[in-house]
Design a protein that fits this description.
This is HD phosphohydrolase domain-containing protein. Keywords: Hydrolase. InterPro entries: dGTPase-like, HD/PDEase_dom, HD_assoc_2, HD_domain. GO terms for molecular function: dGTPase activity. The protein is α+β, with helices and mostly antiparallel strands and 488 residues long. The chain folds into two domains: 242 residues, Hypothetical protein af1432; 113 residues, 2-Layer Sandwich (Alpha-Beta Plaits), CATH 3.30.70.2760. The protein is built from 17 helices and ten strands. Helix 3 packs across helix 8 and helix 8 packs across helix 10. The radius of gyration is 25 Å and the shape is globular. The termini are far apart.
Length: 488
């Protein structure tokens, strides 16, 4: 199979330079990594309907509705991850010749390229919110979808690359980040794409840099240094010890993006609306069943909301109404937030703080229903729950590059975090008119479940910054009243 190599631009996907020599690699111009080169065996996977589908899935889901610059898609991210995976493994193999094993480079590059094939509409909204609510009996994540779509890609496209059964199994294991599936293959490669050991991998390298770029934010984390000062020791990727603080910057950047962007209050409000719309549409469109059928899943992407929006199917009326509210910015409203103290994390459970318990504290005239309230538990961390991922990183020094060690927090800086996870409880109202009543009910419930004798007073109260004043009117309602007054 022969291809005419070209230069592509990931921003506008237009071909702007052709080469006559068919042996040249294809070059893709990327705003993050510059000119990236891919051999024919990689391009064959890119030029399939399965991979091209990622052009229609937003990398940051509903974030685009709040941050207009966040318009990038899973397509360019996946190409960027493949480029970094190939570059990292190639450098390791060139500097440590004992690592060279036939097909390892190809397999890890293809795993990186295909690791997000299984994402559904609006990325993590689908596997973290929609599927768990519609089908709580299955534990489905997009990684499983990626494995399914990778197999279907191989079955339905003419791929001119010699991948044996064990290679396919290996690629799927790399996507899952599970070395136990292929314990006979190179262990260090499982640190490249989906690193379950310490969560440092090229997937994060790309999305942190790419997301910051499109969001118009600055990242102080330098992934290129980390890649340059890495080597394989004891079957795992280790780093030069002076890069330790750079690694902390990686996880701090990730935390900051979650705090300021991914879990932004309006982003989450729209996410809940989109989730409600897809759940309402599921009996008609069968969205949740597609996770078991690759042919149907191939047709599912962000354009599903257009399908709902312009459908004349009566059963989609409720979904259309919600989508119209998103279009006209009549959004669900953020009501309140409580940052849970460490001593109450195991106490303020979902059984104690939920919509049913909140409306139980309403007054006679509030008229609240359970469906009026959304309780959202936000968990932010350094990618390994409440653990410090740097504790699981191996380092080397210039005196003995083949001997590794750990670094404690006190050996790096006393200003790095002491705690690595926070949980907050957020409350949203589907009906903006009920914000004040819902907030009062939530705060009454909190007082019941926060023991004053064990938790400092400043930690058991919600922020005054979120307190809704008496007689509060939403901006939309104010505009309506102002318009009516001017007419009179």
């Amino acid at each position: 199979m022969s291809f005419s190599p070209c230069i592509y631009n990931t921003s506008d996907t237009s071909t702007f330079e052709l080469y006559a020599d068919s042996m040249q690699p294809k070059r893709i111009n990327d705003p993050i990594h510059g000119l990236m080169e891919f051999d024919d065996w990689t391009i064959q996977f890119i030029d399939t309907p399965h991979f091209q589908r990622l052009r229609n899935i937003k990398q940051l889901g509903t974030t685009y509705y709040v941050f207009p610059g966040a318009s990038h898609n899973r397509f360019e991210h996946s190409i960027g991850v493949a480029h970094l995976a190939h570059s990292l493994v190639k450098r390791l193999q060139d500097t440590q010749r004992s690592l060279i094993v036939e097909k390892d480079l190809e397999c890890v590059t293809l795993a990186a390229l295909c690791h997000d094939l299984g994402h559904g509409p609006f990325s993590h909204v689908f596997d973290n919110e929609v599927i768990p609510r519609i089908r709580p009996e299955i534990k489905w994540k997009h990684e499983e979808g990626s494995e399914m779509m990778f197999e279907h890609l191989l079955e339905t496209n003419e791929i001119d690359i010699d991948l044996g059964t064990d290679d396919v199994k290996f690629i799927k294991a790399l996507i899952a980040g599970d070395w136990s599936i292929c314990p006979h293959r190179s262990r260090y490669l499982f640190d490249v794409v989906a690193n379950k050991r310490n969560s440092i991998d090229v997937d994060k390298f790309d999305y942190l840099e790419r997301d910051c770029y499109y969001l118009g934010m600055k990242s102080v984390f330098d992934f290129s240094r980390l890649m340059k000062f890495s080597r394989v020791v004891d079957k795992q990727i280790a780093y030069y010890f002076k890069e330790c603080y750079n690694i902390y910057e990686l996880f701090q950047t990730r935390y900051s993006l979650h705090k300021k962007v991914y879990k932004h209050r309006v982003v989450k409000a729209i996410e809940h609306m989109l989730c409600d719309a897809l759940i309402e549409a599921d009996p008609i469109l069968g969205i949740s069943k597609t996770v078991e059928n690759p042919e149907e899943y191939l047709q599912l992407n962000d354009t599903v909301i257009n399908q709902i929006e312009f459908s004349k199917e009566p059963g989609l009326a409720k979904s259309k109404e919600i989508i119209n509210r998103i279009r006209t910015r009549k959004l669900y409203k953020f009501v309140d937030e409580y940052l849970v103290p460490d001593g109450l994390k195991s106490h303020l459970t979902e059984q104690k703080i939920n919509a049913r318990e909140i409306i139980a504290h309403q007054t006679e005239n509030d008229g609240l229903k359970e469906d009026d309230v959304i309780v959202d538990r936000i968990r932010l961390n350094y990618a390994m729950n409440d653990k410090n991922p740097v504790d699981h990183v191996k380092f080397y020094n210039q005196y003995n590059v083949d001997e590794v060690f750990n670094l404690t927090r006190s050996q790096v800086s006393y200003l790095v975090p002491e705690q690595y996870e926070e949980i907050s409880i957020r409350i949203f109202a589907r009906n903006p008119k009920k914000m004040k009543s819902i907030q009062e009910c939530f705060r009454k419930l909190l007082k019941i479940h926060t023991p004053h004798n064990t938790i400092p007073n400043e930690e058991i109260t919600t922020s005054r910054g979120y307190t809704i004043p008496e007689g509060y009117e939403t901006p939309t309602k104010k505009r309506r009243h102002s318009s009516q007054s001017s007419i009179l």
